[in-house]
Write a structure and sequence with these properties.
CATH architecture of the largest domain: Sandwich
Number of helices: 3
Structural class: alpha+beta
CATH topology of the largest domain: Immunoglobulin-like
Number of domains: 2
Largest sheet: 8 strands, mixed
Order of helices and strands: HEEEEEEEEHH
CATH superfamily of the largest domain: Immunoglobulins
Length: 177
Amino acid sequence: MHKYEKQNVQKLITLGFIISIISTISLLPVNASGEINIHMNKIVGTNISNKISGKFRINVDAVDEIIHINLLFNGSLVKEEDGNELEFTFQTHDYPLGIMNITAIGLNQAGDTFQTSKIVEFFDSSTFDTVLYVITGIVVVPFVIYYIKKGLKKKKKPENLDDLKKKIRIDIDKDFS
């Protein structure tokens, strides 16, 4: 492998690593002064920064003093749970596309409320997937063609003339007497 090919492979690996870190950071928990947390995990689908599409799980956890949790999507209650933990699984296509304010509200024994929010955008991944496949094809096909041509050139490399002379063998099957 040539020096430039190694550099290109290293650049692609680095780019992939950076993209995976950015995707992971976008799903880190949001914290409201340490009282209540929202964790969002992708089950199946796509997430790019704060844009999500597919099936996701939301886990809400809170300090022990929280006795009741409500989960709201754009102000509408989608799940409530007694205790300090809540789990909710959803499909983005079950809700309107666009900006979604996901809010968790916790209530303690004294009646105080604590809340935290995460703003995401639900989008149609079929369009994104199509664009992704086209771009991947545009990027991958030239590399495949390049490596195929490179492999064919190696096979067509002429052999050394002395080696060819050694391989030639002539059998004469007719007797000249």
